[in-house]
Amino acid sequence: MCGRIVQKSGPLDYVERIFPNLRRVFDDPAGPRYNIPPGTRPLTMHRLAGDFNVDRQWWTWRPSGSKYAMNCARLDKILGNKWPWKMLTGRGRILVPADGWYEWMPLGDGPKPPKQPYYIHATDNAPLFFAALSDWRPGAEKDEAHGFAIVTNDAAGGMVDVHDRRPVALPPDLAQQWLDPEFPTAEAVALLADGLPETAFTWHPVRQEVGNSKYQLPDAIEPVPPMPPA
After folding, report:
1. Which of 20, 51, 53, 55 measures 20 to 30 Å from 209, CA to CA?
2. Going by DSSP bridges, is the β-strand pair 72-74/100-106 parallel, antiparallel, or unpaired?
3. CB contact at 8 A, 193 and 174
4. What letter does residue 1 receive in the DSSP assignment?
């Protein structure tokens, strides 16, 4: 997973996919985002303070005392109860709603071949819910020290991802359980093995401009002819 997601839907569009009878109004002034990188604050869904909430949290987490900042949490490390994720699986489970994400495929060999960006989304264009782990707690700053990382499965195959990993997207029923702070930690972690399969996704090439995260126009996700091989 390269670390770019799309959130073009409104908060209620995401919420109603999981909680169809939840009557809430969410006011998000930022509007749709077509190219969200780590080090920013995308929409998140969680129950970290008990009640269900939708807000913006910092995407990238630097554990206390660590020189490494992480925007992805590898599934094998989580399943192995490894540091630092074992600190968060019990109290820091959140969702990152999205409409899709980007990956880049090298076109040819060599040290720096050109890359074709692809947009990956659900075959039915439904919202996706990426499992994530956050170190935010009520009263804490929404910064790198209290940020989150999206769970990725490096063994699942990345489709067009040269890194051979992709985010763990949970179906709505499992996403609801993942959020529940009362749901047993071991069972919640086990849910991560049941993320959506490759057959749930489709993808197409998109314009080179998405390589710059400042490019936020709606045509960022529209298909274009693929670049010729180098």
Report:
1. 55
2. unpaired
3. no
4. -
> Using one digit for the tens of pLDDT, what is the confidence trace for 148-184?
999 999 876 667 765 667 999 999 999 999 999 999 9
Burial annotation 209-227 (CB, 10 A radius, 16+ → b, else e): ebeebeeeeeebbeeeeee
Structure tokens at 46: 């969680």
Active site residues per annotation = 2, 103
Contact predicate 96/42, CB 8 Å:
yes
* Residue 123 binned pLDDT confidence (cut-offs 50, 70, 90): very high
Of 107, 204, 83, the C-alpha closest to 162 is 107
Tokens 């919420």, located at residue? 15
| Chain centroid to CA 85 | 16
81 contacts 167 by C-beta, under 8 angstroms: no
Which of these, 37, 36, 55, lies nearest to 45 by C-alpha position? 55
